């Protein structure tokens, strides 16, 4: 159920009680001690109810202002907000009317010291309760904001964790492919080494020397093509090598 409607029902119940007490207060006649005592009790009751209602209406007004900033979240339309503000304004007027009705006779006959003391104590209690309630409401709003921020942080961390997981999977795949390439290259090198060892073993010492000389000749020819300015020196080297 909408919290506004719950508080509204409570306010209407308190307002009805205050109106009934005010009517009883207005019907008391006479100036005897008993009449004054009854009138004082009813007046205190009406005044206390009015102050309590006024404080609740003030909190409801703040709640409506907060809901207007994020009406979609609370599923409220502008018509709903306007209706709530109108009800708060009309109820405030009724509270002011009852308070004015109480003050009219007080101007002619000042309240007794006992009534003043009771009224002061009642006002102090209402003020303390109102401050405590306001503090609790502020703390609850702050906690809601903190929880919203925490939820956003957790969501960001979750997305970051998914991204890191995907990156690790991609890197794992790349490492597996690299391992396969290294294994293939190692196998080919081992096969080539075996073939070279086999050739050298079949050629013997003399064959190995011939292979070395052949490689030297190939290297000299390549150097002649790579460095044509030094071709003469290369040819001399080649002649010496062939002579040997």
Note the run of SSEs as H and E: HHHHH
Low-confidence stretches: none
Structural class call reads mainly alpha
| Mean pLDDT score | 80
Number of helices: 5
Quaternary structure classification: single chain
Radius of gyration: 50 Å
Number of strands: 0
Task: Profile the largest sheet.
Answer: none
How would you sum up the global shape?
rod-shaped
Distance between the termini: 110 Å
Helix content: over 70%
* Estimated share of beta-strand residues: under 5%
Which structural traits does this protein have?
244 residues; mainly alpha
Describe this structure in words.
It is a single chain. With 244 residues, the protein is mainly α. The chain has helices at 3-27, 33-69, 78-108, 113-226, 231-243. It has five helices and no strands. The longest helix is centred in the last third of the chain and has 114 residues, at 113-226.
Question: How is this fold's topology laid out?
Answer:
Blueprint: H1 3-27, H2 33-69, H3 78-108, H4 113-226, H5 231-243
Helix pairs in contact: 1-2, 1-3, 2-3, 2-4, 4-5
Give a nutshell description of this structure.
The chain has 244 residues and is mainly alpha-helical. It is built from 5 helices and no strands. The longest helix has 114 residues, at 113-226.
């Amino acid at each position: 159920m909408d919290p506004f409607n719950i508080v509204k029902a409570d306010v209407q119940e308190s307002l009805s009680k205050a109106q009934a007490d005010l009517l009883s207060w207005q019907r008391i006649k006479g100036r005897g001690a008993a009449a004054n005592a009854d009138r004082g009790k009813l007046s205190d009751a009406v005044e206390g109810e009015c102050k309590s209602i006024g404080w609740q209406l003030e909190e409801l007004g703040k709640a409506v202002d907060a809901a207007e900033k994020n009406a979609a979240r609370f599923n409220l339309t502008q018509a709903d907000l306007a209706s709530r503000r109108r009800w708060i304004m009309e109820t405030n007027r009724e509270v002011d009317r009852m308070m004015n009705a109480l003050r009219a006779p007080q101007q002619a006959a000042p309240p007794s010291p006992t009534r003043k003391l009771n009224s002061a104590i009642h006002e102090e209690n209402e003020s303390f309760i109102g401050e405590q309630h306001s503090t609790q409401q502020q703390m609850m709003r702050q906690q809601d904001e903190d929880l919203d921020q925490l939820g956003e942080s957790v969501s960001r961390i979750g997305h970051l964790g998914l991204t890191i997981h995907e990156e690790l999977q991609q890197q794992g795949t790349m490492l597996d492919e690299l391992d396969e390439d290294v294994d293939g290259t190692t196998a080919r090198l081992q096969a080539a080494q075996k073939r070279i060892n086999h050739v050298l073993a079949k050629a013997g010492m003399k064959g190995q020397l011939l292979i070395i000389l052949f490689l030297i000749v190939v290297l000299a020819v390549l150097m002649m093509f790579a460095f044509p300015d030094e071709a003469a020196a290369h040819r001399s080297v080649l002649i010496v090598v062939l002579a040997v």
